[in-house]
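Here comes just one.
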Amino acid sequence: MARVPNAPNTAFRGLRGQRSAAEFAAAVRRAGREIGEQVACDARYVGRVESGEIRCPNYAYERVFLHMFPGRTLADLGFAPRESVRGRRAPHVPGDSLVFGESRESPPPAAGPVPPIVPGPRPGPGTRIDEESDVLRRAFMTGGSAAMAGLALGIASPAPAGASPSPAAPGATPPGAVRAPGPRRPGAAEADAVEEAVRRIRLLDDRHGADTLYERAGEALRRAQALMDAGAVRQSVSERLHAGAGELAISVGWLAHDSGRFDDARSYYAEALATARLAGDPALEAHAFCNTAFLARDAGRPHEAVRCAQAAQTVARPLGSARLRSLLALREAGGWAALGEQGACRQALGRAKDLFAQGPCAADPEWMSFYGAAELAGLESQCWSALGEHQRAAACARRAVELQDPHFTRNIALFTAQLAADLAAGGRPEEAAAAGARVLGLLGGEEGGVRSTRIRSMLRATAARLRGHAAHPAVGPFLDRAREARLLPV
């Protein structure tokens, strides 16, 4: 029953019936969870199957589809035999940089590891985002505080008295407990709650850093995903939920990034990119590419950082925000600096400053509230530091600290740590120790201090560099405090 290649899959379309592609995709994901398969199905994947672009699903999707439609074969579902499509590459979709959720010629699981995902502006044919994003999301979303999620999303989910929620099975009923009724279809109130959760997480991150927020923010994201799966009352609400869930994925990705979980961050950013493409949301896409570029630089993939920053600038150009394009130019500059390309870095920095000088406007995204003159100076300092221009980097970092709004405690700690690093590298140990001591005061051990693995790592490297100057009266006390903070061995 093999179909004519690239002919529409009418059999599969018939099985969808009156459900929308998004509703059917949600049913596929639910069926996957029933049998322990994690598939990142969405409306776009369903459309590609129905159009005939996907001639045969990968093994994970095969198991899910046969579970959904017992008694049927792949041929009954309109798919071609696997042996007839294996080895053929997928046709490139013009303008498409991310094709996710399936593989036409996926080998069995034992055949070898899935190639790493490298989001970029224009990858070659057959590039895909597979189920990695969904698997990792669900693995990390099952922990955290249900109470925080209820507060963040405005969804009450109290556990029965004496019962403990089971982190291993979201939605499972604890033994002896009465299962709560299922959630109603989300409306404007739920979309408001998702958007408020994004704001709240960003506010807490601005003040305290990532380490204590990561798991709790993950729980909020899991609940936002559940709202999307439930299906919104109106299309406008669905669009808000997609945008909100995408922004939440970016926030959780950033918290993973800042707490040193680079692989997890990459998966969350990939999920946000997929959500942006599904929803046709260029603002979300630009944000996801922006953060992916930043992560790639920190993770030692500078070429990817440049590509993602350039892709973000292309997407952002029609959005009308000069400040957004300025930040994206800085992301590109960071990639060039990591590559040691001083000329390209200078050009990108020049564009960033020119665009910044155009001032704010109504089109600036809400998430860019952190981006002002202080952030511009701080990111410039990172570029000069990567290029080995430590004196210039220290001057920019000092300006970033002086200009920073007191609300952004985490960024004050970050740029002071950058200042300490460049002073130490520039042969000014006394000033470096003084700056490092200020960071230790902001980190602290008490409730309310900044908790950021990234900042601690920077300060640890500075303390290690200063150990050769321990006899200096200004350096010794700092090193003692660094040992007390477990930044150096005792």
Notes: Residues 10-90+97-105+122-130 form one domain. Residues 213 and 255 are 7 Å apart (CA to CA). The radius of gyration is 25 Å.
